[in-house]
Design a protein that fits this description.
The protein has a six-stranded parallel beta sheet, sandwiched between helices. It has a three-stranded antiparallel beta sheet with strand order 2-1-4, with no helix packed on it. It has helices at about 50-55, 90-105, 125-135, 160-165, 180-195, and strands at about 15, 25, 35-45, 65-70, 85-90, 110-115, 140-145, 155, 175-180, 200-205, 215-225. It starts with 12 loop residues before the first strand and ends in an 8-residue tail after the last strand. It is an alpha/beta fold.
């Protein structure tokens, strides 16, 4: 390790560089820079080149190659409007980093977060988000399941359906969408009909690596980096 500070804007992502010129992209999920530690939320794909075959073998202080910061998906503080955050699956990662930055800001706007998953067991960060609603009055969180789940008392629909039920007029909101390309495309169509201004809609599409099995489980990986941009 050394004292080089890793700088990034909450919402950005890193590329992990693999052998053969391959890369895997993961969003930074926390607005934390202490000790140059970054937190990633990784969906483990069975037989996935990094998430399964390599990530499971990593130990504390192992070195990897990565490049950062990347991406232009982050909060636009000069455009102070009520904020809607919407994510599916691990699309929560950049959304959560943006949420933390918003909640730490001096003039935090009202925030609504919609997190869509297939079933209740996929809500891997549910308790932490519920806790934030108790400590921040400006923050409203709604988990949404797309499939029926036993003993689930929350919403069962798609997140864009829940979003427009709560917000009939969207012309005065900033909207951040992160997750599957299908969700983002459909959400953009729906919110446009409710007056969302394209200039205030920001997206981060999560496309699985080619050949990946979409079934998986969730894990967190804490990785300590020692250099900026390129790591050995």
């Amino acid at each position: 390790t050394n004292n080089t500070q890793v700088n990034f804007i909450p919402g950005q992502f890193i590329n992990i560089l693999l052998d053969g010129g391959q890369k895997r992209s993961y969003s930074i999920s926390h607005n934390v820079r202490q000790n140059n530690t970054l937190t990633l939320q990784i969906k483990v794909q069975p037989e996935g080149l990094f998430s399964d075959q390599i990530c499971r073998q990593l130990k504390a202080n192992d070195k990897i190659k990565a490049e950062l910061p990347l991406g232009n998906f982050f909060w636009q503080p000069k455009r102070v409007k009520p904020v809607i955050l919407a994510a599916t699956g691990t699309g929560l990662a950049p959304i959560h980093a943006i949420l933390e930055e918003l909640l730490e800001s001096k003039n935090c706007p009202s925030i609504s977060l919609y997190w869509g998953c297939k079933q209740q067991s996929d809500l891997y960060y549910h308790k932490q988000l519920l806790k934030l609603t108790k400590t921040h009055s400006v923050f409203n969180y709604k988990p949404v399941l797309s499939q029926q789940s036993q003993n689930w008392q929350g919403l069962t629909e798609y997140i864009y359906q829940a979003l427009v039920k709560d917000h009939q007029q969207l012309d005065d909101h900033q909207i951040y969408l992160a997750g599957s390309p299908e969700m983002i495309k459909k959400s953009q169509q729906i919110i446009s009909a409710y007056g969302a201004n394209p200039d205030f809609v920001f997206t981060d599409s999560f496309q699985p690596a080619q050949g990946s099995n979409k079934k998986g489980i969730f894990s967190s990986l804490l990785t300590r980096f020692t250099k900026k941009k390129q790591f050995a």
